[in-house]
Amino acid sequence: MLWCIIPAMIDIKDLRERPDVYRAAAANKRIAVDIDRLLELDTQHRALNTRKQNLTAEKNAISKQIGPLMGKLKKAQGAEKEALQAELDQLQVKPAQLKQEEQALEAQIAQIAPQIQDLLYRAAQPADTDVPVGKDDSENVELRTWGKVREFDFTPRDHITLGQELGMIDFERGVKLAGSRSYFLVGAGAMLQQAVLRLAQDMMIQRGFVPMSVPVVVREPAMLGTGYFPLGREQSYTLANEDPSLFLVGTAEVSLTAYHMDETLSEADLPRKYVGMSSCFRREAGTYGKDTAGLYRVHQFEKVEQVIICRNDEAESKKWHEAILANAEALLQVLELPYRVVFVCSGDLGQGQAAKYDIETWMPSRNNWGETHSASRFYDFQARRLNLRYRDSQSGQVKFCHTLNNTVVASPRILIPIMELYQNADGSITVPKALRPYLNGLERIEKP
User: Fold this and answer.
1) Which of 76, 111, 251, 427 places its Cα 20 to 30 Å from the Cα of 347?
2) What is residue 74's DSSP assignment?
3) 205 CB contacts (<8 Å, ≥6 apart)?
4) Strand partners, 304
């Protein structure tokens, strides 16, 4: 394969013009990428390509000279013929020399281009200017809270105790069968999870989102395109015994956002609003010893995810960002779960996120807020990597789309606040009113 055109993973022109912005983006997001080396290689790559283009032009010019010269040679005689023949011989030698130089240039380009591509895959999307600079999630900024944290007049149980006493969760057999961070949801536990997922999906359909059942096994381009590779590769499970280029997704965002990969959409069809319900898989690498008990951090879970694909317009992206955040808040309000919204600081942002809101729901067993939702806007970061474009209806220009996503609900984590906040002194759990229609009118979960 000849490497001469680098995929548009970020706006390389913008990086050339504002290198300090990209250096700061990497530093603020704590991402190790050598921007200076990237620029150096980019300069070399452009110079080599320019020289190669000049060689091509020179070869074309020679080809145009040879034909007329051969015509003159046929008619010439004597000294004139000898002079023309010498000129022709010299011209015919030149393409071979140029071809040799061209091959040498191609070898250099083929060596440099993959290095540039790797660095571009690691470069960070600059955060919006209003994003607070901070080192980690401890420096996220609280924007607002909703609901009242329940005060108990009895000693509350945690979801582990509740789940085991009510026969809703079986951790022992889950670990025996699948290892650490594994579990069974049993009886009312499984039904409660399905009720939450169905409620979330129904609410999104009512808001005009197209429901989709998505592949949870995807090829590497989808993971690269959505920004989960290469930096997050260690978090993913691979199907190495089947095909090492196949991976289990950690979120339906991958499948939904990559749905239109390598396509050019019509502006009239934007925005695209998709909602997907799927199983999700994460290795939780780097979290050894953290949240090992219970349902907070597990390897397999279910999620309803919302994705927006819209025009390349910052104001529109920001509008949709608020809208998808409001969708998730609406679900928590219907469930009557107290939560807070935080504006995520730079050190807690992902590589491609220009800005992110987290929603944290109150969890009594943690005596704190626990993250249950994340709403992200990427501008054209993912679309560039996915080659996801649209044609502007006025200018006719082809532009990269903007993408956004947000968790509508993720389970079993959402079961923690539901079970713990709705528990009763006798150890039973009151079913939230919004979930009762999905549980055949069940009002209380009691010991079997």
Assistant:
1) 251
2) H
3) 211, 275
4) 277, 409
Structure tokens at 137: 């999630």
CA atoms within 13 A on the CB side of 253: 25
What's CA 219's distance to the chain center, in Å?
14
185: which 2 tokens?
A: 């949801």
Q: For residue 68, name the pLDDT band (cuts at 50, 70, 90).
A: low
Q: Please say whether the dihedral angle defined by the alpha carbons of residues 366, 372, 377 and 380, taken in this order, is positive or negative.
A: positive
Which tokens in the block code for residue 322? 């608020």
pLDDT of residue 418: 98
Task: Choose, from 253, 360, 371, 420, the residue flagged as catalytic.
Answer: 371
With contact defined as beta carbons under 8 Å apart, do 331 and 206 qualify?
A: no
Among residues 282, 311, 377, 389, the one annotated as catalytic is: 282
Q: Is the pLDDT of residue 89 over 80?
A: no
Identified catalytic residue from 297, 340, 391, 436: 297
Report CA-CA distances (Å) from 211 to 272, 278, 319.
Answer: 11, 11, 22
Of 332, 342, 340, 324, the C-alpha closest to 253 is 324
The terminus-to-terminus CA distance of the chain in angstroms comes to 64
Spatial separation of the C-alpha atoms in residues 292 and 7, rounded to whole Å = 41
Task: Indicate if 30 belongs to the active site.
Answer: no
**Would residue 272 show up in a list of annotated catalytic residues for this protein?**
no
Compute how many other C-beta atoms are within 10 angstroms of the C-beta atom of residue 52. 18
Helix axes 35-75, 78-122, angle to 10 degrees: 160
Q: How far apart are CA 201 and CA 303, in angstroms?
A: 10
Quickly count: other Cβ atoms within 10 Å of residue 281's Cβ: 19
Query: Is 102 an active-site residue?
Result: no
User: Catalytic one among 374, 385, 411, 420?
Assistant: 374
Residue 87 predicted with pLDDT over 60: no
Beta pairing, strands 272-281 & 210-212: parallel
More confident residue, 324 or 394: 324
Per-residue pLDDT, 94? 64
Q: Is 374 one of the annotated active-site residues of the chain?
A: yes
Cite the DSSP H helix spans in 76-216: 78-122, 159-165, 171-178, 188-206
pLDDT grade for 72, boundaries at 50, 70 and 90:
low
CA 380 remoteness from chain centre: 11
Q: Is 376 a catalytic residue?
A: no
